[in-house]
Design goal:
Layout: H1 4-12, E1 20-24, E2 37-38, E3 48-49, E4 53-56, E5 70-78, E6 92-96, E7 108-111, E8 126-129, E9 139-140, E10 151-153, H2 161-169, E11 174-178, E12 182-188, E13 192-193, E14 204-205, H3 208-218, E15 222-229, H4 233-241, E16 248-252, H5 263-270, E17 271-276, E18 280-281, E19 287-295, E20 298-307, H6 311-329, E21 339-345, E22 348-349, E23 355-365, E24 368-373, H7 383-387, E25 390-394, E26 400-401, E27 406-411
Parallel strand pairs: 5-6, 12-15, 12-16, 13-14, 16-20, 18-23, 21-24
Antiparallel strand pairs: 1-11, 2-10, 3-9, 4-6, 4-7, 5-8, 17-19, 19-20, 21-27, 22-26, 23-24, 23-25, 25-27
Bound molecules: adenosine monophosphate and magnesium ion.
Adenosine monophosphate binds at residues 187, 189, 191-192, 204, 206-209, 252-256, 308-311.
Length: 419
């Protein structure tokens, strides 16, 4: 049996980065840029006002104060987006809105609060300036954010909301990104029933396909539901066929020792098993391999993750193995989940040298993280995953961890409550 780390290494060696495609900017959140994006324009395009106020010559404000205002003649009002053709001569000012381009002659903007505008009639054609202003005051320079000709976002950048905004500021509606993988998801088991059906006695609903599909979505992939295969090899093969156009196949169940554990049989006949069983708890019976699909004279290797059937095991197998594979396909470099060091409240025994992933609730108190178990840790108790925000890791070479020990916790999510 191999370790979690060896398993991940073997997986990543079989995963290639997918091709690039053009995507509308709002569709590519979380994707990796496949081109250098440069700007053909300056942003802002012109020197403009950072404040609502008056554009004027700073020299005209010398000695100005609340007690002795400098009175200037107002020659025009300019709104944002419009350009004044007037020139600000000595002794004059232009009333200005934020974002409007600085007119000829002016070298600063004095905000409304530093004028006597509020004390004047609306019709007044004069303004009193109440403070001295330095050249450049409240002026945003052309190109101060982005200079024309420069590369603004480099190839390999992960698109977040800020990058979507930057792309929009350049007038880009589409951009080249590494495409999202399509992940085909198949449940196995004679006992498993689709959630749209009534539940016969002795059967259980197919939760795995849904938790897995949600994980695929969370990490940026496109799930393709293949339904449920029975415990007969032909049924599995027929269903898997519907997923051969996908970039990745994920099954759940049918991988432990037993009469009906058929995923490995199919893998060994139609491809290659890379590994089966990992020294971890839960999720030991996970299998990974590639299905070899011949199409148009070429052989396509489709990675297949045969996740353990128990609902918690399936999710943890996914987080450990399928998640980094999806991220690598998407061109990401950072593949590890964030982890924190926490003080354990409770104890966990490790009896058979596996790496344990225990569902835990992590909280920050007095500047330190504390982790307590969610309760019973059976691999069928899916609500334990719902309660947990992290997985306490007990290393394979440790007989256990006890109350007060410092432990590593892999964070499943990072909600505000952790902070
Ligand atoms: P197996 O590895 O196929 O023996 O499955 C192990 C356990 O996981 C069994 O108790 C199954 O009932 C349960 N299980 C398998 N597949 C699913 C599924 N799609 N949804 C929920 N539970 C499942
Ligand atoms: Mg089964």
């Amino acid at each position: 049996m191999i370790s979690v780390d060896e398993a991940l290494e073997k997986i990543l060696a079989r995963i290639d980065v997918l091709e690039a495609e053009e995507s509308p900017i709002l569709g590519c959140l979380g994707q990796v840029l496949a081109e250098d994006v440069s700007s053909s324009i300056n942003i802002p395009p012109l020197d403009n006002s950072a404040m609502d106020g008056y554009a004027l010559r700073s020299a005209d404000t010398r000695g100005a104060s609340r007690k002795s205002p400098r009175i200037l003649r107002v020659i025009e009002t300019v709104t944002a987006g419009s350009i004044s053709r007037s020139e600000v001569e000595p002794g004059t000012a232009i009333r200005f809105m934020t974002g409007a381009a600085i007119p000829k002659g002016a070298d600063c903007v004095v905000r409304f609060e530093d004028t006597d505008e509020s004390e004047r009639q609306r019709t007044s054609s004069e303004i009193g300036i109440l403070t001295e202003a330095k050249p450049g005051l409240e002026i945003r320079r052309a190109g101060e954010d982005i200079t024309a000709g420069s590369i603004v976002l480099g190839k390999g950048t992960v698109i977040r909301p800020a990058e979507v905004g930057v792309l929009a500021s350049l007038g880009r509606s589409k951009v080249k990104v590494i495409r999202r993988p399509v992940v085909a998801i198949l449940a196995t088991g004679d006992e498993v029933v689709d959630i749209a059906q009534p539940l016969p006695e002795g059967k259980i609903y197919n939760s795995n396909s849904y938790s897995v599909a949600a994980l695929v979505l969370r990490y940026g992939g496109i799930p393709k539901m293949l339904g449920i295969a029975s415990d007969i090899e032909d049924s599995l093969v027929a269903r898997l066929h519907l997923g051969l156009d996908a970039d990745m196949l994920i099954t759940s169940g049918g991988v432990s020792f037993g009469d009906y554990d058929i995923v490995r049989d199919v893998l060994s006949k139609r491809g290659e098993i890379v590994f089966w069983r990992v020294r971890q708890k839960p999720g030991k019976p996970v299998v990974f391999g590639v299905i070899k699909e011949r199409s148009k004279g070429k052989v396509k290797n489709i990675p297949l993750f045969g996740l353990a059937g128990n609902p918690v095991s399936a999710m943890i197998n996914f987080e450990l193995f399928a998640r980094p594979a999806i991220l690598k396909m998407m061109g990401k470099k950072s593949l590890t989940k964030p982890a924190v060091e926490a003080v354990l409240e409770g104890a966990i025994e490790n009896t058979d040298g596996r790496r344990i992933f225990a569902r835990a609730i992590v909280e920050k108190r007095g500047g330190r993280y504390f982790a307590r178990l969610t309760g019973p840790q059976g691999s069928g108790i899916l609500t334990s995953m719902s309660l947990a925000n992290g997985l306490v890791i007990v290393p394979e070479d440790k007989p256990g961890v006890k109350e007060g020990d410092s432990v590593q916790v892999m964070m499943l999510d990072w909600s505000e409550e952790v902070e």
